[in-house]
Amino acid sequence: MLTLEQLQRLTLDGDAIERVPESVAREHCVLPIGFADDRLSLVLPTDLDERTYDLIKFVLEFDFDYETADRQTLRNFVHLFYWAVYSDVRNCSDEFRFKCPKMWIDLAATSDPMIRHCGTCDRKVHYCDSTMEFDKHRKRGDCVAFVDRDTSATTLGLPM
Question: What is the rounded CA–CA span in Å between residue 121 and residue 102?
C-alpha cells in the first residue's frame, strides 16, 4: 500500500491520465500514474471490490498493473491530477495583479505535488483549493494556482 509520502512523489503523466476517463477515475478513485512495458500503471483504493475492479478492467480495455492506497488520500490526488490535465484558466478575478496564461500541467513538477515551478518567471506556484489556503499564499506574495471549489473556476497567477 502506498503512503501519502509515496503518493506525493508521483509525477504527472498526461498520457496515462488520458487513458482513464475522468468520470471513471473520480467515481471509482482510480489514479493513472504512467506506463511500464506497455502496461498502464494505476493506483487503486485498498477497499476496491471485485465487481468494480472488473468494471475498470472492462472500461479501460488496456492491460494494467496497480498498487493500492487509502481511498480518501487517493481521492485528493485524483482530483489534483485530473484538474492539472484538463483545466484551463478562466473567470480571472480582480484579486490577481498578474494572470498567468499557463496551465498547471505546463509547469515543472517539484518534489511536492502541490507546488510547481514556472521556468518563465522562475517562481514556485502553489496549488490552492480553499480560500484560506489562497489567503495564506497571497499574504506571503506567492504565485498560486487557485481552484474555487464552489464554482470550479480556475486561476493561475500572482494575487494582490
Answer: 11
Whether 118 and 45 map to the same domain: the answer is no
Same domain, 102 and 81: no
Q: What pTM does this model have?
A: 0.62
Would you say 83 and 105 are in contact if contact means Cβ atoms under 8 Å apart?
no
What is the CATH number for 41? 3.30.300.160
When divided into structural domains, the chain yields a total of 2
Name the residue range of residue 115's domain.
96-159
| pLDDT digit string, tens, across residues 51-62 | 999 999 999 988
Q: Which three cell numbers stand for residue 127?
A: 496549488
Q: Which stretch of 18-32, 68-82, 84-98 has the lowest confidence by average pLDDT?
A: 84-98
Q: Reduced to 3 states, what is the DSSP secondary structure of residue 109?
A: strand
**What are the phi and psi torsion angles at 74 (to 5°)?**
-65, -40
Q: Rounded to whole angstroms, how far apart are CA atoms 14 and 19?
A: 9
List all residues 6 or more positions away from 24 whose beta carbon is below 8 Å from its beta carbon: 30, 56, 59, 60
Same domain, 58 and 34: yes
77-122 residue pLDDT tens: 898 888 766 654 333 445 556 677 777 777 888 888 788 888 888 8
